[in-house]
Specification:
By secondary structure, the chain is of the alpha+beta class. It has a domain of about 100 residues: Serine Threonine Protein Phosphatase 5, Tetratricopeptide repeat.
Length: about 300
């Protein structure tokens, strides 16, 4: 039987491994805190010069107008709230309902379905798992598809890129938690490998440490990728009938092996990579290009939710 290492030597090795693991896992989180500069407030303040009571009154007025079928008034008041910086999933949901209802009347305006889709997407971003918002979004997307079919245009179904699809399976915090759990299992495995004198326990510890080490590395990479996507890209929705793909000079992009479609349909979810004047560099599935910033509706972040 191979003799166990002396306790002081094992303890030093164990401490060194544990410190290295903690440093590896905490580095992305510390960098995130440094980027933020200060912790976010749980309840962001209202927009400057806008009393909370005024926002509540305007929201209730918009909800009342929506219930009475005054969609134009409801939209105007909800857009005023958005311009003031008021962000709340209920306001986003009502705005989506107002636009989608107006799109079914004679007062329909170009882009109504796209703005409805943007509002429902924003509601789902602010309140994940909202069943009513998900159903309403699906109904709006179905209406856009039927309209495209009536106009003789093919329905467009674009899937997210493989990297974004994998990273967005769960939230950044979940990936970080899985990395931390893997680090804990790795630590236990190393402890068994270094301290336990029994061969079977040492073997089990070595296997657990090897598997957990690979898992920790994978989850750490996914945590970093999730953080990278969150910091460097912003979600938005196309609110024009179509958004023509352009190059950086604003010239239309022709079809190619990398660009199968020349225009992005109304209601499509895209990701803004950067802005340059009146143009935005966007990612749509596996396609990248530039579109007019006026054809996009950026989505609010959950960090911006206002006090109702």
């Amino acid at each position: 039987m191979r003799p166990a290492l002396p306790f002081p030597s094992s303890l030093l090795r164990w401490c060194a491994c544990l410190l290295a693991l903690l440093g590896l896992w905490s580095a992305p989180r510390l960098a995130l805190a440094q980027d933020a500069g200060a912790p976010a407030l749980a309840s962001p303040p209202e927009a400057a010069g806008t009393p909370s009571s005024s926002n509540r009154e305007l929201f209730h007025s918009a909800a009342s107008a929506l219930g009475q079928g005054a969609f134009d008034k409801a939209i105007d008041e909800l857009e005023v709230l958005a311009d003031r910086g008021f962000v709340h999933p209920d306001a986003s949901f009502d705005r989506g309902v107002a636009y989608s209802r107006r799109a079914e009347t004679r007062q329909v305006q170009p882009g109504d379905y796209g703005r409805a889709a943007a509002a429902f997407q924003e509601c789902l971003r602010l309140r994940p798992g909202d069943v009513e918002a998900a159903r309403a979004l699906a109904a709006v997307e179905a209406q856009i598809t039927r309209r495209r079919s009536r106009e003789g245009r093919e329905p467009v179904v674009v899937n997210a890129s493989l990297s974004r699809a994998i990273v967005t399976l769960v939230s950044e915090d979940v990936w970080a938690l899985l990395a931390a759990l893997s680090a804990l299992i790795l630590s236990v495995g190393l402890g068994l490998r270094l301290w336990n004198p029994k061969p079977r326990a040492r073997f089990s510890g070595g296997v657990a440490a090897a598997v957990a080490g690979v898992a920790m590395l994978l989850f750490s990479v996914l945590t970093y990728a999730s953080r990278h996507f969150r910091i460097t890209t912003d979600p938005a929705v196309i609110v024009a009938t179509e958004a023509r793909l352009l190059d950086v000079q604003g010239r239309p992009l022709p079809k190619s092996d990398r660009i199968e479609l020349e225009a992005i349909p109304e209601g499509a979810l895209i990701w803004i990579l950067e802005r340059n004047g009146s143009l935005a560099h966007i990612e749509w599935g596996t396609t990248e290009g530039w579109v007019s910033i006026h054809q996009l509706q950026p989505l609010a972040s959950p960090d911006d939710i206002s006090t109702p």
